[in-house]
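#structure-requests
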Amino acid sequence: MNFDPMLPIWAQVADALKRDMVSGRLKPGDRLLSTRELALRFTINPNTAARVYQELENSGLCETRRGLGTFVTADAERIAALRAAMAEELLRGFLSRLQDLGLTRGEALAMIEAAEQAQPAGPSEE
């Protein structure tokens, strides 16, 4: 992972885990890597890895079970709310940047549709 020097490393790793949670790569109840394994995976200090889990736990996104490890919350509604919030944040930033470029709504929608058609097929629509 290439870290942005303008953001705390723990926040960037926490965001990566949140993306894994909302995308389904990490499912409710899944066991997370140990702090040591997380530190090795992201090449970060073990104290930074512990901070990642502390922040996720404070947000209610994971729980630590003594002697068993750290697990993704089983609260699917909390994960769904996180997904919606993350998507909204991305959309707001995206729309703001399009406005900064001076694109009209019609131009932006046409570009989105063209880009979507050029994308390989993703998850099926429900």
